[in-house]
Amino acid sequence: MNTQPRILVIDDDEAHREGMALLLEDEDYLVDQAEGAETAMELIRRYQYDLVITDYKMQKIDGMELLKIINDYDPLLKVIMVTGYGSIEHAVQALHLGAFDYMPKPIDPVKLKEVVSRALESQGWKHPARAAIPLYFGEIVGQSRAIKRVVQQIRKIANVDVPVLISGESGTGKELVARAIHSASQRKDKPFIAINTGAIPKDLIISELFGHEKGSFTGATEQRKGKFEEADGGTLFLDEISSMSEDTQIALLRVLENKQIERVGSSRSFKVDVRIVAATNSDLKPLIENNRFREDLFYRLNVYRIDLPPLREHVSDIPLLVDYFMEQFNSQYHTHVEKIDEKALEILMHYNWPGNVRELRNVVLNAMIQAKEKIQIKDLPPFVLKQAPEEIRLKAGTPLPEIERLSIVKTLRMVGGNKMKAASLLGISRKSLYNKIEEYKIKEDEYNSPSIS
User: Which of 8, 163, 182, 351 is the most exposed, fewest CB within 10 Å of its CB?
Assistant: First the structure.
């Protein structure tokens, strides 16, 4: 972790760029340079900057456009705009788009240092404890820049009453984000209704969404409200929209256009006031190209987009999430597992988490069931241990049964599951090996699939 602020200076004029960088390095800042917006965004994605200083007039992508890109990528990152083509209009536009400040060329060294100092102070450099405060926004937990960016987007869009599209892998918390948007909005006192459009048979989804009249189809023994009516005045969360049939897509598009619904079996339309938040774990663009998802519906839903990061891209949040889940489960199940062993936590940090936060939650619950007062390495499931570097798993003081179990699994993996060869290498009989496999509850998938570590 840097003990000095890290600043990115962007200018396609090398002399000006170098001049600003030297001035800032004299102030003991860490300074990187980029000659254009494309290189700048590569660096911003790779490193954690505390401040960006960008020129306004640049080739291809100018500073104003770059400011918009940075705001979308990381709304918390401060930007100072610099230009030799200054005007009041440019200054107002930059500040309106969220720039921290605006400076004309030629740069006044004293002014530059003063503005940079103020910008860094606003980022918390005079208050280091600020960065360590965990972020809890509803049920969204994290202090990583990726999660802070998501929370910033939620706050920004909550009271702008337009459709939102949430994109992310399974288990990243799309419904939690939808609920957070609803809870932070002016609709918070009205219903939040969620429906998984991929889990309902295609011949029933229209009825689920819009309701039906008595006798409108076999089994419709009474009039029933649909999810749109239930959510009237509030928010309707449509999950897995990529799986919707074409008929459902057309019906949804019609509602988005005229704000009216019609129950199945009825010829009467009536208005509903519903905010749509949709979610997908699939890239919709290929589906559009293959005529499996309507492009006009995509643009209706994709008015504002939030992309959720997979857990492997914000592993620094895992300790916070583990603490949060332990507290939640202790309360829910009246257990008393208050801590996790440091090495067990390190193993969780090395796992790839294909199931994301949902999978972490399940692993923590499983480990708490196995544990007594503290989650130990032995309480973690085998599929998690398989990805842990051996130097973490085998430390001085590791219990002998745990070492023996790991040795057997690694040997079986090395010989492709051949138990005769494994027994020979381990110096035991094949019968003893079978007994050990049964004793340690070693499953075939622990040694028949290649190690990822």
Answer: 163
Residues 119 and 171 in one domain: no
Output the six-digit token pair for 335: 């257990």
Mean pLDDT computed over 413-430: 84
In three state form, how does the secondary structure of the chain look? CCCCCEEEEECCCHHHHHHHHHHHHHCCCEEEEECCHHHHHHHHHHCCCCEEEEECCCCCCCHHHHHHHHHHHCCCCEEEEEECCCCHHHHHHHHHCCCCEEEECCCCHHHHHHHHHHHHHHCCCCCHHHHHCCCEECCEECCCHHHHHHHHHHHHHCCCCCCEEEECCCCCCHHHHHHHHHHCCCCCCCCEEEEECCCCCHHHHHHHHHCECCCCCCCCCCCECCHHHHCCCCEEEEECHHHCCHHHHHHHHHHHHHCEEECECCCCEEECCCEEEEEECCCHHHHHHCCCCCHHHHHHHCCEEEECCCHHHCHHHHHHHHHHHHHHHHHHHCCCCCEECHHHHHHHHHCCCCCHHHHHHHHHHHHHHHCCCEECHHHCCHHHHCCCCHHHHCCCCCCHHHHHHHHHHHHHHHCCCCHHHHHHHHCCCHHHHHHHHHHCCCCHHHCCCCCCC
Q: Is the pLDDT of residue 198 over 90?
A: no
State residue 450's pLDDT score: 41
Domain assignment present for residue 182? The answer is: yes
Determine the structural domain holding residue 328 and report its residue range: 314-396
117-131 pLDDT, tens digit each = 988 887 666 433 334
Please report the sign of the dihedral spanned by the C-alpha atoms of residue 383, residue 387, residue 390, residue 392.
negative
Q: Locate tokens 């309902």: which residue?
A: 200
Tell me: do 301 and 374 sit in the same domain: no
Taking residue 83's Cβ as centre, other Cβ atoms within 10 Å add up to 22
At 244, which CATH number? 3.40.50.300
User: Do residues 148 and 220 share a domain?
Assistant: yes
pLDDT tens profile 94-109: 888 888 888 888 888 8
Report yes or no on 451 lying in a domain. Answer: yes
**pTM across the whole model:** 0.61
The domain that contains 413 carries what CATH number? 1.10.10.60
Residue 135 lies in a domain: no
CB of 304 within 8 A of CB of 157? yes
